[in-house]
Specification:
With 259 residues, the protein is α/β, with parallel strands linked by helices. The chain folds into 2 domains: 8-105 and 215-252, Periplasmic binding protein-like II (D-Maltodextrin-Binding Protein, domain 2, 3-Layer(aba) Sandwich), CATH 3.40.190; 108-212, D-Maltodextrin-Binding Protein, domain 2, CATH 3.40.190.10. It has helices at residues 45-56, 71-76, 91-94, 124-130, 143-151, 163-172, 182-193, 225-240, 243-252; strands spanning 14-15, 18-19, 21-26, 35-36, 42-43, 60-65, 82-83, 98-99, 108-113, 135-139, 156-160, 177-181, 197-204, 219-220. The strands form 4 sheets. Strands 6-3-7-14-8 form a 5-stranded mixed β-sheet. A hairpin with a 5-residue loop joins strand 4 and strand 5 (42-43). The longest helix has 16 residues, at 225-240. The two termini are 33 Å apart. It comes from Pseudochrobactrum asaccharolyticum. It holds the Pfam family SBP_bac_3. Keywords: Signal.
């Protein structure tokens, strides 16, 4: 993970007098939400949504790439004005930062090696029972880590920096299962799994495990009501006119916009 924190000495750039530029933090290792292309540019669903958001707010934006588990701490100390990185809105995070209205609601999935008995699970509870004491991989600082710690207390939790590392360890037999968003799994299952990796049980949401929260939102430093209001206004207009749905179709081939 590359750390790009240019112009941080400027601190938060939105004031009551108006904004010249917003600094947006993201962890560009989670395609199709965000990743880095061959030219070093951050691309993905969040990038397109964020760029359109800034356009509607009539401000310029600078994107900064940061390891996922450093995003919210960075926001809290003023390194970023906003964080957009598929961040799920939940109670634990809401104690530390403020959130915009949800702009997306992406399902999650557990993946196992083909032939594992958890693959035929019919419910979230059955997944818990079959994987209760297994080694399970998650990305550091995510709601997926929170879910495993809360609901799979006997599991051997393995924490990774990147999604591809979870897939690699699954294929190598070092873990029995991994939990990530469905969208993060799709290219890994297709390109690396080669029929060896399969989805286990149903897709999972906040209904199954409350730690998944109420959808994905933009995180803001606590107390910036003016910025929060402007962000919400832009999100509402983008949901209403179908812009986020169209961007979702571009990157996911299905609609994850918040309904």
């Amino acid at each position: 993970m590359k750390l790009i924190l240019s112009a941080l000495v400027l601190g938060a750039t939105l004031t009551s007098a108006g904004a010249q530029q917003l600094h947006i933090g993201t962890s560009a290792d989670y395609p199709p939400w965000e990743s880095v292309d061959a030219s070093g540019q951050i691309i993905g669903f969040d990038r397109d949504v964020g760029d359109e958001l800034c356009k509607r707010m009539e401000t310029s934006c600078e994107w900064q790439n940061q390891a996922y588990d450093g995003l919210l701490p960075g926001l809290q100390v003023g390194k970023f004005d906003l964080v957009m990185s598929g961040v799920s809105i939940n109670e634990e995070r809401a104690q530390r930062v403020d959130f915009s209205a949800a702009y997306a609601d992406a399902p999650n999935a557990i993946v196992v090696v083909a032939g594992h008995d958890a693959a035929v699970s019919k419910s979230a509870q059955e997944l818990v029972e079959k994987l209760s004491s297994s080694p399970i991989g998650v990305q550091s600082g995510t709601t997926h880590e929170q879910v495993i710690r809360a609901h799979f207390p006997e599991a051997d939790i393995r924490v990774y920096d990147r999604p591809d590392q979870i897939a690699d360890d699954l294929l190598a037999g070092r873990i029995d299962a991994g939990l990530m968003e469905r969208s993060a799994w799709e290219p890994l299952v297709k390109e690396r799994g080669e029929g060896k990796l399969v989805y286990a049980g149903p897709l999972l949401t906040g209904t199954d495990f409350p730690e998944f929260g109420k959808g994905q939102g933009i995180a803001l430093k606590k107390g910036n009501a003016e910025l929060q209001s402007k962000v919400n206004e832009a999100i509402t207009s983008m949901l209403k006119d179908g812009t986020i749905a169209a961007i979702s179709q571009k990157w996911f081939a299905y609609d994850i916009s918040k309904k």
